[in-house]
Amino acid sequence: MKRSLKYIFANSLFMRLFIVILFAWSYLILSYGNLGLFELINEQHTPILDPLFKYVTHLGGGWFALIVALLLFALKFRWGLIASICFLGSAGITQVLKRWVFNWPRPGAVYSETIDSMNLVEGVDLHMQFSFPSGHTTAAFSVFCLLSLILSKKKYLGFLFCFLAILAGYSRAYLFQHFPNDILFGSLIGTLTSVLVYSWLNDKNFGNWGNKSLFKKNT
Fold first, then answer.
1. For residue 71, what pLDDT is reported?
2. Would you give the DSSP letter of residue 70?
3. Please, which residues have CB within 8 angstroms of residue 122's CB and are 6 or more apart in sequence?
4. Alpha carbon distance 104, 182 (integer Å)
5. Which ranges of 33-134 does DSSP label H, i.e. alpha helix?
6. Chain-centre distance of CA 146, in angstroms?
């Protein structure tokens, strides 16, 4: 596992970009403050970005993660199994933290008295509880990090997958659902869970069925 982790951090374009973004996002939070950065993001609304982020945010949804897991099961059983453990594990960690450890209010509750002066996206229902960490961000980074590891031979995909994960995470603040801190820690949980699970299971011997499709009959 140590060799796998060393290889991933040395060769994964996704991980290199993620580390850069992680430090950049942390710097912005420290510079502007959690609420200050959130308010800065809220000022950037445009008629083009509103519908874009309204749909991009679904890249961090449970249905998207389920579809990816099923597609991986259709390719190789081992990939589907690893994906299931990654996605369920990261989601479980996030839900425990947000519901039973922190239970912090979301932006809709924090800005309830001044919400009429904020930029909101039409058709987006605002949640009020369980802000930290962001579940959608966790799922997006878990899914796209794992895909980048599975398809590591096509290194250019690491850039695409990291970009999509970043868009999904950013959308959570843009849509008035989460604060920058929520996004930061969600991305950490999702990425680290996928890296650790993949490193642990990818080299395991799953037998003949490990590299076969779950949905195809073996003849």
1. 97
2. H
3. 50
4. 10
5. 34-42, 49-56, 62-75, 77-96, 107-110
6. 11
* CB-based contact 189:90 (threshold 8 Å): yes
- Chain centre to alpha carbon of residue 37: 20
| Calpha distance 81→173 (Å, rounded) | 31
Per the structure block, which two tokens stand in for 117? 């002066």
**What is the pLDDT of the chain when averaged over all its residues?**
93
Tell me what pLDDT residue 24 has. Answer: 98
Contact indicator for 59, 196 with CB cutoff of 8 Å: no
Closest CA to 25 of 154, 191, 152, 149: 191
Contacts of 18 (CB under 8 A, 6+ apart): 141, 145, 162, 165, 187, 191
Regarding predicted confidence, which is higher, 102 or 8?
A: 102
Per-residue pLDDT tens over the stretch 67-97: 999 999 999 999 999 999 999 999 999 999 9
pLDDT of residue 2: 61
> Hey, what amino acid is at 72?
L
The sign of the CA dihedral 152, 154, 155, 160 is: negative
Q: How far apart are CA 183 and CA 169, in angstroms?
A: 6
